[in-house]
Amino acid sequence: MIDFRNVKKFYPNGTVALDGVNLHIDDGEFVFIVGHSGAGKTTMMKLLLREETASSGAILVGDYNLSRIKNRDVPYYRRELGVVFQDFRLFPNKTVYENVAFAMQVIGTPRSMIKRRVPAILSTVNLADKMTRFPRELSGGEQQRVALARALANNPKYIIADEPTGNIDPKMSIEIMNLLMKINKLGKTVIVVTHEKNLVDYYKQRVVMLKDGKIVEDRVGGMFS
Asked: What are the structural domains of the chain?
């Protein structure tokens, strides 16, 4: 589970990015986080990734208390997260296979396991036939599927997708979202940060809306007017 308990985040310039956020997400949930620019979505994601720390309040993710976690334990915590970014962040000089394998290599996964797991993950995202291609040889939608495969590489409990359809066309957006729904049905907790109202309306999952650093709506269904 993920718990934000009266979380506040202030920046030195006086900006109040989050102002008393309380949010509970159960294991296995699919949640959209929405809101206009400056609403607090990016700050919430940075706190979840432990790139930043809350000014006050507590954030609990599984067995970890992010307010008290030691720096040496942060890399182990992050292994429980699979993150998908809007700009893909693939290594241009590595093949599809190598991009996904790299996520496993950096935590010391045995080569034999990498050889078994990478093709299986690429099959899950419908890229089994593109293993030897480089990112420049792929469409935007295919690159985002590689990024999703990489996020799945270490079998994380939580998938966090930050504007995953922002740089791809509408048809590919549906494909990426369908894959995220498929992953959710496998038991993963999925959090999607987006501004795309049509996607949110179409999938009718739980939607949490932020405004001025506060949660102003939390319900199941389409996006708010």
From this structure: 1-80+158-225 (3.40.50.300), 90-155 (no CATH)
